[in-house]
Amino acid sequence: MTCFPFSFGRKVPSVARHNPDIDEELSGIQNVRIFTYKELRVASDNFSQANKIGQGGFGSVYKGLLKDGKLAAIKVLSAESTQGVKEFMTEINVISEIEHENLVKLYGCCVEGNNRILVYNYLENNSLSQTLLGSGHSSNIFFDWKTRSRICIGIARGLSYLHEEVRPHIVHRDIKASNILLDKNLTPKISDFGLAKLIPSYMTHVSTRVAGTIGYLAPEYALRGHLTRKADIYSFGVLLVEIVSGRCHTNTLLPIGEQFILETTWELYQRRELVALVDASLEGHFDAEEACKFLKVGLLCTQDTSKLRPPMSSVVKMLTGEMDIDESKITKPGLISDFMDLKIRGDKKDGDIETKGSSSYNASSASDSQGNTMSFAASTSTTTTFTRKYDQSL
Ligand SMILES: Nc1ncnc2c1ncn2[C@@H]1O[C@H](COP(=O)(O)OP(=O)(O)OP(=O)(O)O)[C@@H](O)[C@H]1O
Description:
The chain is of the alpha+beta class.
């Protein structure tokens, strides 16, 4: 099993070997390690079920032991999400140059035949959605307040780096708990950045992947497909509230009006009772002032008007105490329930929501080429489907 840097003249994947156009494109690519399919197959024990650690919208993820002794997460992109070698390698080259303590490191990739495989640094403690927010708290990790605070600040730093330091800036598009992985020290690492661009554009209409997960979606992105860094900041705000409260953004078992965590946060903020939202499992062992400050930052990040959301570098400063929060800027957040007129119903008709008794849902949206149809389609783990036409005037 050999790992070698990708550069023109060295061994290249068979699909690219005799195509001069692709060779030319790849000649500028220096930093990407190319793995052969065979070595990833060996590393993952033939992509065995025992090594399968996850299934996402892009495809399956396997744990693997590389020849150099490093553990890797091997993400095999599904056939629909593959594209030409040239486009794929161009994006991979961008991603592989990005290094930050709070971003998952891409080791390299494999582009043999129709295979498109990404190889990442393996992170021992799974994702925030499976640990902190997992149903019945499926992990043994106890997230004390200090750990939560460190996680929030780490994610903010990683996103600030993508938004403000990487050139050209990267909009993540899918900030959510399942895209925050934890290493052995519980340092948070944002995963899947840059991946949305790997999806061919014709898939954006039907894909459940590219447009984020409902509940984290900024209103302007959900309704008009208007994607800027401010949409990521909105999603980060939702995630911040989730981490402080230990609750998923949506809980359809709660009465209408309390199902979306932002609604509750806003209600409690108005009543000056934000502290009631802090995770009860902390049993009072937390810095109340800091926790409430984090929730207020969450509200600022989720303001309906995107201009009112602070840039991520300011968010980092507010969370670390280097900058004060201007409370006069906190108004009602953009609430998904306001524009979707969500109703939870047992029967299923077109335009209705169908629930299957889950405490949360995980559907995604996309807009069509005219930008006037929004559909929320079920993804692999989805319990809710929703399709509606929306009014252009919204
Ligand atoms: N670098 C990694 N180290 C350890 N586990 C990982 C790594 N990357 C992914 N995983 C595991 O694989 C799962 C699936 O990851 P993936 O990013 O493909 O999908 P997702 O984020 O869960 O869902 P979606 O594709 O809808 O965003 C993760 O939840 C995590 O458990």
